[in-house]
Amino acid sequence: MLARDAVGQDELVGRAVEAARAAGAHVEWSDRNRRLADEQIQILADAGIFKLRTPARFGGYEADTATLVRIGAELGAVDGSLGWTAQVYWIPTWMVGHFPESVQEEVFSTPDVRVCGTLSPSGMATEVDGGIVVNGRWGFITGAHHAHWQEIIAVVVSAEAEPMPVMALVPMSDLEVGDDWDTYGLRGTGSVSTSATDLFIPSERVVPLGAVLEGRSGGDGPAMYRAPLVPVASASSVGVAVGLARAARDLFGERLPNRKITYTSYDRQGEAPVTHLRAARGEQLIDEARFHAQRLADLVDSGAASGTPWTLADRVAARGMLGASCGRAREAVETFAQASGGSSVYRGVSMGQILADVQAVNLHALMNPETNAELHGRMLCDQEPNTLYI
After folding, report:
1. Using CA of residue 8, residue 9, residue 14, residue 18, what is the dihedral sign?
2. For the residues of 57-115, what is the DSSP string, one character each?
3. Which domains does the chain have, with CATH numbers?
4. pLDDT tens, 225-248?
5. pLDDT of 297-310, one tens digit each?
6. pLDDT at 384
7. If you ran DSSP here, which 8-state letter would residue 139 be given?
8. The whole model's pTM is what?
């Protein structure tokens, strides 16, 4: 695989477009089996999708988040589960760069390594000689079936100190992988639960969560690490929503010439003013979703490039942009779905799957438009944030 300086960002996007088309042939299998197919994983690997957030010194591309938005949208336009799974891998892969060099070497020694994970602190840990012992269960672990490692969050408790949340890296072979993913939206992501019982994790694979939330500063290391975790995660995961909105528009357009409006005089749906209004509204919403996604990526990438310390206002604004993009994308899909008529409810049409996928995206705790708007509004009204995840 070529290093980052030998492959341009446009070429990476072009590879992703071709990979998405090829992987789309297996969507029916992934929907039926509730996880991506092995063939889809291989197609994405061959296109370099899993190396996008790998450091260049390990053969990766260190792609900026603007590129992630573009690629996420291309994958999501073919299948929401395909795009979502790829995006989720990008975030924990980036997190690996916050661990000691020896740990990074171990993780990235696996070609096209896939790291899954979560930000939920649903494990408890105690300190022991040489590390910690963890017990816990983590839900919504997208891509667990095809991952090599999982990033977990646990709270270290002791009688001598305040509880401290930590982030740790665990081989998937050390975890029990459940089979509890059976959903309407993002069905093919395989977002099952994993669990650990009295699992020992050596200290070199454990870092304080607060340090990662804050992000690095200064000029040391790759630029992509000079940004806090939540804005990075926000910019890394917003592209699929834009892609789903595009998918709804394109499907609507494909069906439009052959549709009439039942119980009216319109033999051609495209002649009706109500169709014109919905088409225009849907297109405007897609433009707005793309605008907010690009603005979010620009905020993260410019901040990382400059190394300037992040202000609280910047962090909150990032969450606001994420929510705005996801919300507009959802509205766009709903607009095109409402204009698609009763025949669109058939599974073979796929409009229902697009709608379920974009709704699932918007229900994610980090991406929920209303939650993010409230957080942004608190900042605008001189109130303190009500979350640590900024």
Report:
1. positive
2. GGT-----HHHHHHHHHHHHHH-HHHHHHHHHHHHHHHHGGGS-HHHHHHHHTSTT--E
3. 4-108 (1.10.540.10), 115-208 (2.40.110.10), 223-380 (1.20.140.10)
4. 999 999 999 999 999 999 999 999
5. 999 999 999 988 99
6. 94
7. E
8. 0.94
